[in-house]
Amino acid sequence: MTTPWHYKSAMEIRNAVRNRAVTATEITEHHLDRIAEVDGRVDAFTQIWRDEALAQAAAVDEKARQGRELGPLAGVPVGLKELLATRSGKTTCASKILENYRSPYDATVVRKLAAADAVFLGKVNMDEFAMGSSTERSTIKTTKNPWNLKCVPGGSSGGSAAAVTAGECAVSLGSDTGGSIRQPACLCGCVGIKPTYGRVSRYGLVAFASSLDQIGPLTRTVEDAALTLNTLCGRDPMDATSADLPVPDFTKALTGDIKGLRVGLPREYFTDALGAEMREKVEAAVDVLRRGGAEIVSVSFPHAQYAIAVYYIICTAEASANLARFDGVRYGFRHPAAKSVEEMYVLTKSEGFGPEVRRRILLGTYVLSSGYYDAYYLKAQKVRRLIKRDFDEAFEKCDVIAGPTSPIPSFEFGSKTDNPMEMYLADIYTISVNLATLPGISIPCGLTASGLPAGLQMMARPFDEETLLRAAHCHERMSGITLGPPPIA
Amino acid sequence: MEFEAVIGMEVHVEINSRSKVFCACATDFHAPPNTNVCPICLGMPGTLPVLNVDMVDKSVAVGLALNCAISRWSKMDRKNYFYPDLAKNYQISQYDLPLCHGGWLDIEVDGAPRRIGITRAHMEEDTARNTHTLAGGQSGVDFNRCGLPLLEIVTEPDIRSAKEAHAYLTALKQILQYLGVSDCNMEEGSLRAEANISIRPTGQEAFGTKTEVKNVASFSGVFKAIDYEISRQAQVLRSGGKVIQETRGWDADRGVTFSQRLKESAHDYRYFPEPDLVPIVVDEAWEQRIRESLPELPIARKARVESQYGLSAYDAGVITMTRALADYYEAVAAAGADPKKAANWLTVELQALLTDSKQEITECRVAPAALAELVALIESGDISGKMAKDILGDMFITGKTARAIVAEKGLVQISDSGELAEIIRRVLAENPAQVEQYRAGKEKVLGFLVGQVMRATQGKANPQILNDLLRDELAP
Prior knowledge:
The complex is a heterodimer of chains A (489) and B (476).
Chain A: H1 10-18, H2 24-42, E1 45-48, H3 50-65, E2 77-81, H4 108-115, E3 119-124, H5 158-165, E4 171-176, H6 182-188, E5 191-194, E6 214-219, H7 222-232, E7 262-266, H8 276-291, E8 295-299, H9 307-322, H10 341-352, H11 355-368, H12 374-397, E9 400-404, H13 420-424, H14 431-435, E10 440-447, E11 453-460, H15 465-479
Parallel strand pairs in A: 2-3, 2-4, 7-8, 7-9
Antiparallel strand pairs in A: 1-3, 4-6, 5-6, 5-10, 9-11, 10-11
Helix pairs in contact in A: 2-3, 5-6, 7-15, 9-11, 9-12
Chain B: E1 3-14, H1 53-65, E2 69-70, E3 73-74, E4 77-80, E5 90-93, E6 100-109, E7 112-125, E8 129-131, E9 140-142, E10 149-155, H2 162-179, E11 191-201, E12 211-216, H3 219-238, E13 246-251, E14 256-262, E15 272-273, E16 280-281, H4 284-293, H5 298-308, H6 313-319, H7 323-334, H8 339-357, H9 368-379, H10 385-398, H11 402-409, H12 417-430, H13 432-439, H14 445-456, H15 463-474
Parallel strand pairs in B: 12-13
Antiparallel strand pairs in B: 1-10, 1-11, 2-6, 3-16, 4-5, 4-15, 6-7, 7-10, 8-9, 11-12, 13-14
Helix pairs in contact in B: 1-4, 2-3, 5-6, 6-8, 7-9, 9-10, 12-14, 12-15, 13-14, 14-15
């Protein structure tokens, strides 16, 4: 039985479209049908742009008919996270406060994907303003894990991960502030990469925490991640923090050879906090790398224990400022009962933001307020530097660091929503990478006994996505692990 | 009890970059509301700021002109507060690491030199403008001003009187205009001054409680507001009261300050480093490049103009009041005019014409070379000073050269003795009675006879030659 289009890789799709074995319109229609078939159960898509997608596909086909060269993502169906600014549809951030907001411009990554001839099928679900690890904080709908519809897809890019896993699109874009690409990729069993901070322009990404946010792709293969990154990366004059560095062809880095690669295992990641089954899968994955010729070394992150505390101070501080603009003055939800400006602010924000967002705004306001700044924000910045230094020192001993992505596999809806701290722990292994502005990837490394995916996380030196992808690709090839289609199929 | 005032000034200068500080929008003040806006300056979700390098260049230039140290490494910070005119509900500004710090500005008050310390000059973005008087009791926000580049210049509490404050503002404005970084128009808000004012018993070290006077739209307003505030505070203290730390507005119509906001309710701005922007690194080479591009500044230029052209200190001061005027003057001198006479013609006659017609020197139709030519024509005796005034008036309106006007109107002075002597003899023959009176010793009649000759020549007679010839002819 041949693989249906909706489980083929982006590379296969674009090759077929480029070779005119299939048209972009056929691919698009197929995926729209697939969404119609499964999204009623998965609930990954929040908006489906049927007409625009078909128009985009027709334009690609027309280009092919004229004999012009097609872009590197020709005809590849893409889902966009709700917080990416798009002229098409709405940009809601899965929040009531932006429920009817239409962006007047396209995010840089959206422009780049369009220029590469990708086709946008619509937008996918997320935790409100990317705050959460289960996508249960969305005010639009609840996205399910395609491996078990009773379980969460992870978050905040839960819609992005579920859509790719369920075969609704080949590639989706997510954003990762503390693990929001890698953790849902792990829980849904797909590939998710958070590039180095500065690699991909953040222009048009509605900010959660500016110094931590990074856009990245979720895909079904490592090669697809490399292919998509080729399009996404590069200096953007609209983003002062984007790096002015050459972008290599990441697909060329996938040599299949990792002989001599030094892989560091952080002692602090393999403690009791790591669930037994996840541990077993991750250790097996590391064995695969060893068999591939990698040298396994032990490294230490003495400051890892502070990562969550530091993260929740810095990200909430930045979020409290970033979300201040949602005040009902110029766009989005405005509370109808307000009789004064101040009342409008208070009522609009109280009703427009969900409880998790309000919690973080309040926390961020507190840690920045005079009298507490030094004790919290400034101290957190100093510890952030120490965490970064841990990585610098580790990378003197190894080329990539490997470990778990998530301490536990996916969990059932509602099991953690009443306890924010427990939810925050879902990102325990991913947060440091954002604090240290490094690239990180999560790839599938097996299924648990209960049939839920486990993920291997790897990290590399800043801007060394090549090594990261090479190692991930090698594991993908050698492990023989193909999770296969999830039960939703 | 005698009191001494302690005043610090905060001046916001709108830097005249062509685009806003964090986006490419135009900065034209006169554009219709909300036309110079884009997703970035409107703070639309997902947008990011990118710092305008021209803003940094011009701010460094101001810092250097104010003898400041330029920070090798500085950053932008977020200043958080909620207001409908603030698109993002935070302002991007500089907090603990301003671009320029620790300078001074030398001023002169009643002929005595004073040095005013400059604490800092930092970059920030302007806010939008709220209008509350729209139809139907509505309020509107014009975001054209939102994101305009602002430089805030803060002094040490070194100013002691309204007069010194005025001198400081005048000198600061002069420097900003010399640098060409701002049009410094107070009415249009491109220069906004706030004064922090306190008083203390003369001789006391410790500062008194200060008030902050905002929203003053003119230099004279600043001057009056400070005077008012000093006497108000003195009155409060003399009557046994306490000065409250507060922000006060200036009511120009009534000539009083009024309480706006108590400091107790002041915001906690929750400053923190702006994560969307990278640090500003002004290395030595950058600073040097700006230093080399600085124009000659007012004090230096005044001294040079005074000595180079042999002018009085007063004239040199007037001529170098603005860079444009000084440039004009030096162009006149370079065109060969006698420097002192040129100074006179510029500062008296041409200046009067400019003032009457509310024109700037830069709009003047009289080219520097044309003024130089006019001065030369007087020097050579071709025209009289009186004729020159009329000619200059013509030049000012038509833009023609002096020589062209002289030729057109046949205005050449009659200096030919033969021709003049003939006219004089005719005039004397027509006025025998007056000749008789003069010869009888009535000297005053000479004036009448000069007038008659002038009339006969339509004012073109060279007065010196006329006088000599007339006395000769009248000699018995």
